[in-house]
Design brief:
4-stranded mixed beta sheet, Aspartate Aminotransferase, domain 2, 17% strand, binds 4'-deoxy-4'-aminopyridoxal-5'-phosphate, Aspartate Aminotransferase, domain 1, globular
Length: 440
């Protein structure tokens, strides 16, 4: 069995399981805005933000105040026993932000749980078993969520059998194929129809599950026409279209929801987590009431789902995003980031592709001069990621081959911070690829 390994964790202390992977040796003392202040006395510009979790920046004063005030009122009330006000208020605030018709919401703790809840809903609503997912998708680490995931063998190897009823179709990964985007979309839609003809009768398919931007799978925006192709097939065959907005949602891509980059597209189920509460664990599942009504009451939810402090933090997060115009900031600062990365890409042949949407930027490293289909260079990506850490810029890798470096600044990131991040990234590349002289 060949499994792409993740590097071992850095922090070595008694009883901390080696199963945890830690991408940097940093131990946090405290953090504010775009900055993490380490116990080593260094100030790190954080372009990882817990993979988009600390959306309003670390410890935004309004989020901190809301959580502190809520702690003094009630920390936990299980919503299957008594309802609490923060959850009612959060639901009232979330409602107008959701796609048209998705007027019913419930809550869980994590992205994985929300994805599982969506799958259960789709199966219960359609009475069908099969879920169609797309190559490179990441949907979580619980057994069912891992069964839906193909962002790397390390997420599913070693604990088979996985959940049955999951079928994978190609993703229009144009760069990997060496094609233009339209050719890749035509190919992927054609392969989907072939899957329907050969293996999964479309009338036996409960759901499509897709990310608006492949996250852990390599920071690949899903082309709008591909999403629209899924919508058409979903409509024709009564299939539920689930968008996993866990990483791309909540303003990150420069629109409130990632799928909004596909004009006119409305999903049937939306799942969101990460940026929703600026760091507190809470996730949400939204769907039309008629679809929700097909599930047994009590079949969803759990002990901590919709925790009161997390809900209060989510309310403050939504207010901050609106009041500070953070979706627009993500769009503008994202353009600055991508433009800067594209400008420096020409200097380093190992950078094969720069792509992204808003504040989700991916830099794909390939073997220089390999010609034809680009060959992933995970060693280069890992070296750049290490070199950025050495220059006090926190970044992460992703992609099935681990050859993409991703930059995920907070939505509050400033123009100067993006410029500083770009400078540090460029210097890290120069250190790795040997072009340091010109930079001084
Ligand atoms: N879906 C997507 C798109 C994600 O990026 C993630 C987390 N990286 C998950 C689901 C799983 O979320 P969690 O880790 O909160 O279970």
């Amino acid at each position: 069995m060949t499994v792409t390994a993740e590097p071992a964790g850095f922090t070595q202390t008694a009883h901390l399981s080696p199963v945890l992977k830690q991408a940097t040796p940093v131990v946090v003392d405290h953090a504010r805005g775009s900055w993490i202040h380490g116990t080593d006395g260094r100030d790190y510009l954080d372009f990882t933000t817990g993979i988009g979790v600390t959306s309003t920046g670390h410890c935004h004063p309004r989020v901190v105040a809301a959580a502190q005030a809520q702690c003094a009122k009630i920390i936990h009330a299980q919503y299957t026993t008594v309802m609490h006000e923060p959850l009612l208020e959060l639901t009232a605030k979330l409602g107008p932000l959701l796609p048209a018709g998705l007027d019913s919401v419930f809550y869980a703790n994590s992205g994985s749980e929300a994805v599982e809840a969506a799958i259960r809903l789709a199966r219960m609503a359609t009475g069908r078993p099969n879920i169609v997912v797309f190559q490179g998708g990441f949907h979580g680490r619980t057994v069912a969520a891992a069964s839906l995931t193909s962002a790397g063998t390390r997420f599913s190897a070693g604990f088979s059998p996985l959940m049955p009823g999951v079928h994978m179709a190609p993703f229009p990964y144009a760069y990997r194929y060496g094609w233009d985007t339209d050719t890749a979309i035509d190919f992927a839609l054609d392969e989907l129809d072939y899957l329907f003809a050969t293996r999964v009768a479309p009338d036996d398919a409960a759901a499509f599950l897709i990310e608006p931007v492949l996250g852990d799978g390599g920071y690949l925006p899903t082309p709008p026409r591909f999403l629209q192709g899924l919508r058409e097939r979903a409509d024709t065959h009564g299939i539920v279209l689930i968008v996993d907005e866990v990483q791309a949602g909540f303003g990150r891509t420069g629109k409130f929801w990632g799928h909004q980059h596909a004009p006119g597209l409305t999903p049937d189920i939306l799942v969101t987590a990460k940026g929703l509460a600026s760091g507190f664990p809470i996730s949400a599942i939204a769907a039309p009431t008629a679809l929700m009504a097909k599930a047994w009451p009590g079949s969803q939810g759990g002990t901590y789902g919709g925790n009161a402090v997390a809900a209060a933090a989510a309310i403050a997060t939504i207010d901050v995003i609106a009041d500070e115009n953070l979706v627009e900031n993500a769009r503008v600062r994202g353009e600055q980031l991508l433009a800067g990365l594209r400008a420096l890409a020409g200097r380093f042949p190992a950078i094969g592709d720069v792509r992204g949407l808003g504040l989700m930027a991916g830099i794909e490293f390939v073997i220089a001069g390999s010609g034809g289909r680009p060959q992933p260079d995970a060693t280069a990506a890992a070296a750049v990621q290490r070199a950025t850490t050495g220059r006090d810029l926190l970044t992460l890798t992703c992609g099935p081959a681990g050859n993409v470096v991703r930059l995920i600044p907070a939505l509050i990131v400033s123009e100067d911070e993006i410029a500083l991040g770009l400078d540090r990234f460029e210097r890290a590349c120069a250190e790795v690829f040997g072009d340091g002289d010109t930079l001084g």
